[in-house]
Recover the amino acids of this structure.
């Protein structure tokens, strides 16, 4: 028997215009947790999709137990007992947990479903591995953590013993992450092998046996975790020492720009409020960061703040004017800029050209229109200016269709548009999502430049590194409430994590047993 | 009483095509393909069914072939032809990822023109109506019962066709297929989250083809059922019933039982519209011309719209409908 | 400019294949007559000045219904209700002419307003209740047709059924409206001598009005902030809301304008004075042909002028097919062309993708589609 259960040898996968995987080799041993480390866009997901049969590589071979195999689709992968928890869960929202688990591997007699049998097996598995789920709950009604358990059960239901986890911790609370690590260790004790895709060093150090590092589609090497350090891994991943510090000038705090008082926003999904009684202020010349795990009300708060959605209670004042009920356009005129969370949903009209997108917030200004007619020359001039200043790269310059631009450059275009409006308040929601290190640094510098120019910045971020390095003040949001306020210089990541996970609250007692479990309890 | 029997039996006979076609639309849309071509599919189904009846007519009148067996053949032929026509939609929207609405619109334009041309070819120049043989209806004679003018007989035999029974059967099969089988589970997953379906090894293309083909089959039979219900022969049109069926499907929230209720409801209004003059409590509008041809027939359309507005909040379309599935996308 | 070329090219290919399919069908149905009749089909439109006049005469309303559909497409709406809007437009123009004895341009305005109202409701329902506009506008097609027929049959003035010929001349005809030639000649669209030039009664200035409107629509869509907003809504409603554009208002406005265009088409056609409105139980085909016109023109307003001329041209050709073949042969050809043009949209995106790849530099690292899914 071969030492390796899976070997991916010299894999090359190209997409139009880019080599996503360039001659990559990855060998997975029996019963190990093997981490696959790399930045966003390093080619990790592509490599795993090749293993899972979603993509066919241009070159390279895959071996299972030393024998060359061909994996043309997920069925082939399944037959080889390879399973995968995708980064974005592949769950049908209106189906029940049970239906989702059996989908594609339905126990049946002449095509008729045998659900009783399926339910029995699922409950057994759930018991055995401590993966609590309610088989009859609909996916749309359960928490993200439970959805992930459903995904894991999907693999177990298919008797998979090579388990791929694609960035499984991004959506979890620290406690849920700990649980997941424990589950992973249990799997390896049973002889299952795990591929763990991540870009978080701490998790690798905690759970992995070995680690393969990718950078920009290239293979950087495989190391034993025992013999390495975080710093070394980090260097392999980014190619240089990471600078966690963001250079900032001295702070000159000005007047209150944004005043949020007791804002409450009802949830679209359930009868509870998504945002509960949130109050804070942002001054001129400071960056305030709204931190928290995804799905704790940040999105809904930003929607209410920017006017995309209504709030049920509270008051918002911008530069001394009440904008609680103001239209989006009026907020913009008063000096609010908004880098939205989802650039494809809100940020860009993908079928518009770059220049049309660059004036999306300003096309109605006299500078760009006269008597209702768009001043094409002015628009072009302005677009050229932004393209140059913000280094937005595209195939055909201002007339490039936004859809055909790379994600990073799309984001740069949005950042350019929102910052060049010269706002009093910049609301930046995950502005560095999906960007490479260089681009992230660029965005951070621009945020700081706004602050140094005496503007107010509200940054909403999920990335702890960003939370710790960019802002002057951190507000932690948990389940729709602000649970803590910190000076980034005086707080540790661990401390923040406790607040983000609801284990601590500055403003009221947190009862025993409400941490983490509360969430499950109400949804189970 | 006779009016009541008439109203009930006509309601059923008009509900049948609506139910069949809306169910067809449901299968297609729950697999992820918007089927706006139902109108065209109905026309093709009706055309081919009527042509088959015409072809079988000599054998039936000569007594060589049982009338209801002939109907069964014609009905199945309608379904198969509807299916064949639906392949055009499937090919455009699944293989070529073309805009589903545009493809469907083209087929809706193609069907009536093709029907007229074919009718000419079969019946000769200018002969635009295909007559329906009288043996198509199930009467007392079929069972060898003496005809009496009773409530029950009026209810059962005035507007009774084999398609009505078939529809009950098909409905039951459809419900089971959609909710109790592996196939149904997979089909529904493709209309909601095709990427999820693909990730567990389901062939989204195949399932969507299946959805469209089933809708072609049901739509084709529905076309024949409509022509039988309308009663005046096939004239290359199904009078917008395909679109009405789409509205019924939406109103029925893409669920079989609700669709059943919705189609009975709309058929009732259609029948009230056409029977209005013989229903005692309906206003007569004395002195107005065209009441029975233009005023009352507006009723089902107006009611449809009001109901669509009232129920719009609860309406939930399959999430991935209308979006071509691309293997490369994740 | 390459983009435009690809557009035109793909339309031309669709047309050629469609025609070829038509020829094949003619051969199957009646091989002996197929080639001569096909020749006639292709040349009838220019065989004489009156025939050509007819092409132009029918093209004018086609441009309008085509524009109606195209304009709605640009805002992401499918206005399949052009037929109903066209019908009520026609009726209001005729009512204005016959009952109120108004001059032609007032009647045309009436048709615009009527069409706009008929487009307003589906737009309103879409924006307020999110009811699919395809379904509502189809319902409005039927309601419009039936309401118009009812009104034509029942409207009275001075005790006479004013819309019918019987009010004006002694005539037994009850299934069509009174002719403008005796009911109100000044409501007829001016001919400006074109009728004598083309030796055809069909000829008037409507084609120029339609072409002018098409150009105006092009300018609105491509050169104004209003057009910018409409297109932003059509391409990405969420982003347009984010940019402070009132998307709900724009949906309604777009349907109103679309309806107005279709309504004007009805006015242009029936105010020519050469055709009377026929009271029958079918929806008018002109509205549905507008869909073909718009699709063939890939929703470009200027393009609708040419695609409408083409469709009108082969329809005139289609008349010469009778009685050997049904004139619906033409509809088959058009349907095939539309079916093919549904793919043409696809071929075009593929083609333009290739062109982009050639030019994109190394730094434009990765196409957004694949990366977007990951982010």
């Amino acid at each position: 028997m071969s030492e390796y259960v899976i070997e991916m040898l010299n894999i090359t996968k190209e997409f139009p215009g880019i080599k996503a995987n360039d001659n990559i080799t990855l060998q997975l041993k029996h019963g190990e947790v093997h981490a696959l480390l790399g930045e966003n866009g390093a080619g990790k997901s592509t490599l795993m999709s090749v293993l899972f049969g979603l993509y066919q590589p241009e070159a390279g071979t895959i071996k299972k137990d030393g024998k060359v195999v061909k994996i043309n689709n997920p069925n082939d992968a399944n037959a080889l007992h390879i399973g995968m928890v995708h980064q974005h869960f592949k769950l049908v929202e209106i189906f029940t947990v049970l239906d989702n688990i059996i989908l594609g591997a339905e126990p049946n007699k002449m095509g008729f479903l045998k659900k009783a049998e399926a339910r029995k097996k699922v409950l057994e598995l759930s018991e055995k591995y401590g993966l609590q789920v309610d088989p009859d709950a609909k996916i749309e009604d359960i928490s993200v953590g439970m959805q992930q358990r459903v995904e894991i059960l999907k693999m177990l239901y298919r008797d998979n013993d090579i388990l791929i986890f694609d960035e499984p911790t991004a959506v979890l609370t620290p406690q849920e992450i700990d649980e997941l690590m424990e589950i992973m260790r249990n799997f390896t004790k049973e002889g299952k092998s795990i591929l763990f895709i991540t870009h978080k060093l701490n998790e690798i150090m905690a759970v992995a046996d070995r680690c393969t590092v990718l950078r920009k589609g290239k293979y950087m090497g495989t190391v034993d975790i025992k013999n390495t350090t975080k710093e070394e891994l980090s260097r392999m991943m980014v190619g240089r020492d990471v600078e966690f510090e963001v250079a900032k000038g001295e702070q000159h705090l000005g007047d209150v720009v944004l005043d949020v008082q007791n804002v409450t926003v009802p949830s679209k999904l359930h009868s509870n409020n998504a945002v509960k009684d949130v109050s804070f202020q942002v001054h001129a010349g400071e960056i305030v960061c709204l931190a928290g795990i995804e799905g704790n009300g940040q999105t809904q708060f930003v929607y209410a703040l920017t006017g995309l959605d209504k709030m049920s209670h509270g008051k918002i004042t911008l530069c001394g004017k009440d904008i609680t009920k103001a239209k989006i356009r009026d907020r913009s005129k008063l000096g609010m800029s908004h880098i939205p969370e989802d650039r494809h949903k809100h940020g860009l009209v993908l079928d518009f050209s770059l220049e049309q997108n660059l004036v999306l917030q300003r096309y109605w200004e006299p500078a760009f229109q006269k008597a209702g007619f768009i001043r094409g020359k002015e628009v072009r001039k302005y677009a050229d200016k932004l393209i140059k200043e913000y280094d937005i790269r595209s195939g055909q310059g201002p007339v490039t269709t936004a859809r055909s631009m790379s994600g990073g450059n799309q984001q740069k275009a949005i950042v350019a548009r929102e910052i060049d409006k010269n706002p009093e308040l910049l609301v930046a929601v995950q502005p560095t999502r999906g960007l490479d290190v260089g681009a992230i640094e660029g965005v951070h510098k621009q945020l700081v430049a706004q602050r140094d120019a005496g503007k107010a910045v509200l940054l909403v971020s999920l990335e702890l590194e960003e939370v710790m390095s960019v802002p002057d003040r951190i507000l932690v949001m948990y389940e729709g409430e602000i649970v803590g306020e910190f000076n980034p210089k005086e707080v540790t990541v661990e401390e923040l994590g406790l607040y983000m996970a609801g284990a601590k609250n500055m403003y009221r007692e947190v009862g025993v047993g409400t941490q983490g479990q509360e969430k499950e309890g109400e949804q189970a | 009483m006779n009016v009541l029997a008439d109203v009930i039996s006509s309601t059923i006979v008009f509900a049948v095509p609506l139910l069949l076609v809306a169910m067809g639309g449901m299968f297609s849309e729950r697999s992820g393909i918007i089927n706006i071509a139902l109108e065209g599919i109905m026309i093709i189904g009706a055309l081919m069914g009527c042509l088959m009846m015409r072809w079988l007519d000599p054998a039936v009148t000569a007594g060589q072939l049982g009338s209801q067996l002939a109907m069964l053949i014609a009905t199945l032929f309608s379904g198969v032809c509807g299916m064949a026509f639906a392949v055009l939609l499937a090919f455009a929207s699944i293989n070529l990822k073309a805009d589903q609405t545009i493809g469907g619109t083209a087929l809706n334009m193609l069907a009536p023109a093709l029907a007229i041309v074919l009718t000419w070819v079969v019946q000769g120049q200018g002969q635009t109506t295909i007559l329906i043989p009288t043996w198509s209806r199930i009467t007392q004679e079929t069972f060898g019962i003496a005809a009496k003018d009773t409530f029950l007989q009026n209810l059962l035999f005035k507007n009774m066709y084999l398609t009505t029974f078939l529809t009950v059967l098909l409905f039951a099969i459809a419900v089971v297929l959609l909710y109790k089988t592996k196939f149904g589970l997979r089909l529904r997953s493709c209309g909601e989250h095709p990427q999820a379906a693909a990730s567990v090894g389901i062939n989204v293309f195949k399932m969507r083809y299946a959805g469209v083909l089933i809708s072609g089959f049901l739509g084709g039979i529905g076309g024949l059922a409509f022509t039988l219900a309308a009663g005046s022969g096939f004239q290359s049109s199904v009078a917008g019933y395909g679109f009405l069926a789409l509205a019924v499907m939406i109103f029925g929230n893409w669920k079989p039982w609700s669709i059943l209720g919705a189609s009975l409801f709309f058929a009732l209004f259609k029948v009230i519209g056409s029977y209005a003059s013989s229903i005692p409590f309906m206003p007569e509008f004395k002195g107005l011309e065209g009441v029975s041809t233009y005023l009352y027939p507006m009723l089902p359309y107006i009611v449809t719209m009001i109901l669509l507005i009232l129920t719009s909040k609860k309406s939930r379309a399959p999430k991935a409908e209308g979006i071509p599935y691309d293997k490369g996308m994740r | 400019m390459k983009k435009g070329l690809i557009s035109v090219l793909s339309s031309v290919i669709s047309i050629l294949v469609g025609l070829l399919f038509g020829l094949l069908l003619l051969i199957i149905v009646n091989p002996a007559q197929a080639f001569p009749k096909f020749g006639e089909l292709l040349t009838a439109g220019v065989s004489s000045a009156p025939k050509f006049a007819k092409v132009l005469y029918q093209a004018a309303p086609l441009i309008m219904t085509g524009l109606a559909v195209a304009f709605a497409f640009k805002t992401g709406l499918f206005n399949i209700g052009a037929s109903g809007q066209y019908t009520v437009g026609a009726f209001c123009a005729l009512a204005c002419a016959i009952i109120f004895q108004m001059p032609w341009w007032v009647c045309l305005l009436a048709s615009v307003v009527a069409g706009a109202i008929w487009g307003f409701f589906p737009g309103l329902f879409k924006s307020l209740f999110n009811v699919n506009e395809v379904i509502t506008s189809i319902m409005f097609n039927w309601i419009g047709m039936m309401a118009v027929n009812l009104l034509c049959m029942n409207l009275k003035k001075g005790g006479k059924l004013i819309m019918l010929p019987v009010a004006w001349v002694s005539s037994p005809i009850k299934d069509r409206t009174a002719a403008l030639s005796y009911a109100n000649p000044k409501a007829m669209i001016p001919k400006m001598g074109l009728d004598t030039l083309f030796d055809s009664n069909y000829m008037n200035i409507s084609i120029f009005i339609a072409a002018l409107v098409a150009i105006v629509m092009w300018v609105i869509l491509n050169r104004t902030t209003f057009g910018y907003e409409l297109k932003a809504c059509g391409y990405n409603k969420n982003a347009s809301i984010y940019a402070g554009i009132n998307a709900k208002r724009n949906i309604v406005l777009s349907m109103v304008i679309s309806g107005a265009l279709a309504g004007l088409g009805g006015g242009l056609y029936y105010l020519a004075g050469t055709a009377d409105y026929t009271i029958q139980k079918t929806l008018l085909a002109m509205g549905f042909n507008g869909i073909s016109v718009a699709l063939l023109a890939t929703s470009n307003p200027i393009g609708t002028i040419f695609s409408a001329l083409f469709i009108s041209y082969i329809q005139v050709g289609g008349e010469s097919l009778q009685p050997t073949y049904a004139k619906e042969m033409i509809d088959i050809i058009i349907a095939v062309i539309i079916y093919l043009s549904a793919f043409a949209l696809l071929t075009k995106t593929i083609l333009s993708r290739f062109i982009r790849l050639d030019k994109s530099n190394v730094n434009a690292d990765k196409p957004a589609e694949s990366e977007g899914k990951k982010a």
